[in-house]
Design brief:
Oligomer: single chain
Helix content: 25-40%
Number of strands: 10
Bound molecules: adenosine-5'-triphosphate, magnesium ion
Order of helices and strands: EEEHEEHEHHHHEHEHEEHH
Strand order of the largest sheet: 6-7-8-3-9-10
């Protein structure tokens, strides 16, 4: 089972600073160095909305089938860079499915077929030449149920960087401290880095998983209901942390909690039965929804 983003071996990270033009396709994602040089197709779907120009992930006419069952219908949306975008909607509407498409976790499920495209920094992520380990390094994921490795706190964080070729102890120690600080966990665990991560509280374990995702320096972090197993205090710590993180990262967050979506996100996308019904700035979606289904959902009439 793929439980996080650190499955690769010996992959060399290409420095982000080497890419001078952010609009150029990013060839570092391709094993054979073959970039996708085709002009970007324009979104056709009426559900696409215009968001700030600096989109980092473009989802274009994406449909997904689990065998004969279609779970996503012609989704088009742009995910803005260094913002928090929330995905909301009733159970079974395809939120997790869409999130998993963004770092190709659905590849692990038999019988999945995908039409349409997802581009990350201008490069299609569905190309056969894509280096999937590099993609998952750059697009990390935090799951609903925290899933620390049965290792020490330190080892949980050092694991990913080590897989990506960092072996120097001092550098790893630095990454461990920086990542734990970034995840607002350092002060709570700095005296017990050698202890098992499984002895931490649920909220601490979830912040550890966020620290572990950060340790490999991703650009995008996908969160699938990161707070649904946490109490209000731990939830509010994660929400504060998300606010912090968006200074450096793009966050895409699935949540069932509409207060959470309205508190933390900049943009919100409402899904229903596999379709993107409405996507707008969060304040607009919650105060002036354009679609009746959105209004019914946010006012608690269904879901
Ligand atoms: N591995 C799978 N095989 C077959 N069908 C699946 C699979 N995963 C999800 N589905 C189906 O796809 C649809 C969307 O599921 P998904 O898990 O993406 O919804 P969701 O919006 O995340 O729901 P929830 O809020 O309950 O987590 C559902 O009808 C679900 O039954
Ligand atoms: Mg889900």
């Amino acid at each position: 089972m793929l439980s996080d983003n650190h499955e690769s071996e010996g992959v060399e990270a290409k420095s982000q600073t080497e890419r001078t033009d952010p609009n150029m396709p990013d060839e570092s994602l391709h094993q054979a160095g073959r970039g996708d040089r085709k002009p970007r197709p324009q979104p056709r779907s009426p559900s696409a909305i215009s968001v700030p120009p600096d989109s980092i992930v473009s989802i274009r006419n994406l449909s997904l089938f689990y065998g004969a069952k279609q779970a996503l219908f012609d989704i088009s949306m742009e995910i803005p860079k260094r913002k928090i975008t929330a995905l909301i909607g009733p159970s079974g509407c395809g939120k997790s499915t869409l999130l998993r498409c963004v770092n190709r976790l659905n590849d692990l499920i038999d019988g999945v077929r995908i039409d349409g495209q997802i581009q990350f920094e201008g490069t299609s992520i569905n190309e056969p030449t894509l280096d999937i380990n590099m993609l998952r390094k750059r697009i990390g994921m935090v799951f609903q149920k925290s899933n620390p490795f049965p290792k020490s706190i330190r080892e949980n964080i050092a694991f990913g960087p080590r897989i990506h070729g960092i072996n120097d102890k001092a550098t790893l120690d630095e990454i461990v401290e920086k990542s734990l600080r970034r995840a607002a966990l350092w002060d709570e665990v700095k005296d017990r880095l050698g202890e098992s991560a499984l002895g931490m509280s649920g909220g601490q374990q979830q912040r550890l998983c966020i620290a572990r995702a950060i340790a490999v320096e991703p650009e995008v972090i996908l969160f699938d209901e990161p707070c649904s197993a946490l109490d209000p205090v731990a939830t509010s710590k994660i929400e504060d942390l998300m606010e912090e993180l968006k200074q450096d990262y793009t966050l895409l967050v699935v949540t069932h909690n509409m207060q959470q979506a309205s508190r933390v996100s900049d943009y919100t996308a409402f899904f229903y039965l596999g379709k993107l019904i409405e996507y707008a700035q969060t304040e607009d979606l919650f105060t002036r929804p354009k679609m009746k289904q959105t209004e019914d959902y946010i006012s608690g009439r269904f879901g």
